[in-house]
């Protein structure tokens, strides 16, 4: 029988090719645009610091993947790390396209090939993004005052003040949405809007706390990534703590800037005002945030490449949405021979 609506398959293939080309373009364009601005600062940094900072960025991405795995496993079925890593890390390259939707689209397609429904991959990804924002806002709380000081040094007081006060206002709502019955109700409504079956079971504290713990670990390692770049200006444990705060503020609030690829520009500005509020000169803070962006871009590509090389081939050839054996593989019922009468 001829396949139904072949034009739809061709359209999906074309969209995949365009999305892949767009991802490559924005990664290259982002790197090229940043290079002229950060070259002088880049040369001033030592190679051991740059390599250590890059490794910390990779670890931060890995913890985010583990947070995603914990949540998706709770609303669908548990995923092994080698299955979750390519879905999350390769799919996350979609964030380099304008609009946050592309990362979800790629993750949904890869998740479907691994046996997870598209809707549950989407819901899990959105939930982890929300929990990541909540974790970041909580970690940002002690540094609101420093951020407001940094706003004055930036020369863009209106935008900076709006961003900082937005984090203050969002915090109680974000924390409230982490309450399992409320979160289950929100997800249930979302599944109804998507015209998908409801969740098999309510969301409990365990996946929420597990995802939040992994998100916090991700912010700590991302802060370590920043501190390795700015430690000459922010030495010691206080400098590391301030760097964690700066990254938490930047990553949590820039999530809402969906028109920019991966929050490009907004994240750097927010991180710079946080570092300026901690005492780093504005020009230096801005240059270092651009170096951070470049290293995170390299980390994104490296992590996705390794994860894809390890697990994507298996996902691409997956044909069954469930690991359950086919009916022909199930044990046959005992035959009733005359001797069993």
Automatic annotation (TrEMBL):
Reading the lineage from the top rank, the first entry is Bacteria
Ranges for region Disordered: 318-341
Would the keyword Magnesium turn up in this protein's UniProt record?
no
Its placement in the membrane is given as: Multi-pass membrane protein
Which Pfam families is this protein grouped with? LPG_synthase_TM
Locations listed in the record: Cell membrane
Segments spanning the bilayer are 12-32, 44-62, 121-144, 164-187, 208-230, 236-260, 269-288
Signal sequence: where?
A: none
Give the compositionally biased regions (Pro residues). Answer: 322-341
Keywords attached to this Swiss-Prot or TrEMBL record, sorted alphabetically, are: Cell membrane, Membrane, Transmembrane, Transmembrane helix
Q: What's the protein name? A: Lysylphosphatidylglycerol synthase transmembrane domain-containing protein
